[in-house]
Write a structure and sequence with these properties.
10 helices, TIM Barrel, alpha/beta, Phosphatidylinositol-specific phospholipase C/glycerophosphodiester phosphodiesterase family protein, 12 strands
Length: 288
């Protein structure tokens, strides 16, 4: 049954005021393309719990992120963005925070989220509860934005400017698998590796780092764990799937840098962070 609480989060007014603050100078200056038309997109940059930043979506895009995450609850027929039910605010909708601004940006940039960038930007939508009902409403909403979305139709995939990927409550999986036409894809787990689930349905494999690896970036990466990481990435890539881990170390310092370095070396596709500027700096220092 859908949640019906409409309690506003304590920080709603503060977040709204913060949204009017200009992007940091680092975001405005250091990541510009040579043409001066915006930040160079970072293919591995994923904004975990993106909606907690002062300017949801916009802060991540100002740092060049190509994947953002929004948690949603179904409340009275609307999809509200929040991490916990106690933080729900009817003004913070998926459409208002993500779908509408993405559509406006795609139109302004002639069909792309980033001008001249022709890969889809990933919108990871984590359904927190009522998976089947929430997905039904999500599909209804996404249909209205289909002009900018990647889609699956009758066995084939057509890439768009934005690729929604559904995570969270596993009850969304069955109704998605049954669709002949959909505007979203499914976030798989390590158990999906090597199964019959195709990349056209499960293009992303996500896992909890701490459940598969003990190493937290201090000391040498155990050889057996490095081999396991590369096995996972190779298995996913061989089926056309991308890889993401959550719960990786995220405090600034050598340990986080060591883990991120190993993830990049293994070919992990998305680095998960709450520190937008920190990951941007890390990635740009490793790119010409």
């Amino acid at each position: 049954m859908a949640l019906t609480t409409r309690r506003r989060a304590v920080g709603t007014l503060a977040a709204a005021l913060a949204g009017a603050v200009a992007a940091p100078a680092y975001a405005q200056a250091s990541s510009r393309t040579e043409r001066g038309d915006g930040p160079r997109p970072l293919r591995q940059a994923h904004a975990h719990n993106d909606y907690l930043h002062p300017r949801p979506l916009h802060d991540a895009l100002s740092h060049g992120f190509t994947s953002v995450e929004a948690d949603v609850f179904l409340v009275d027929g609307e999809l509200l963005v929040a991490h916990e039910a106690t933080e729900l605010d009817p003004a913070r909708t998926l459409r208002g925070l993500y779908l509408d601004p993405l559509l406006a940006r795609v139109r302004a940039n002639h069909g792309s989220v980033y001008r001249g960038y022709h890969r889809p930007v990933q919108l990871l939508i984590d359904i927190k509860a009522d998976g089947a009902a929430a997905y039904a409403e999500l599909h209804r909403q996404l249909t209205g934005y289909r002009s900018m979305l990647s889609r699956y139709a009758n066995g084939s995939v057509r890439a768009g400017a934005v690729a929604p990927v559904i995570s969270g409550d596993r009850a969304a999986r069955a109704p998605m698998e049954a669709q002949r036409v959909r505007y979203a894809f499914y976030d798989g787990r390590l158990d999906d590796l090597g199964t019959a689930a195709p990349a056209s349905f499960v293009p992303l494999i996500s896992g909890n780092w701490t459940q598969s690896f003990s190493w937290q970036g201090v000391g040498a990466f155990p050889a057996a764990e490095r081999a396991e990481l590369r096995r996972i990435v190779d298995a996913a890539h061989s089926h056309g799937q991308r890889v993401r881990f959550w719960s990786t170390p995220d405090l600034p310092g050598p340990a986080r840098d060591a883990v991120w370095t190993e993830l990049l070396a293994a070919g992990v596709d998305h680095l998960n962070t709450d520190d937008l500027a920190g990951l941007e700096r890390f990635l740009r220092q490793r790119r010409p």
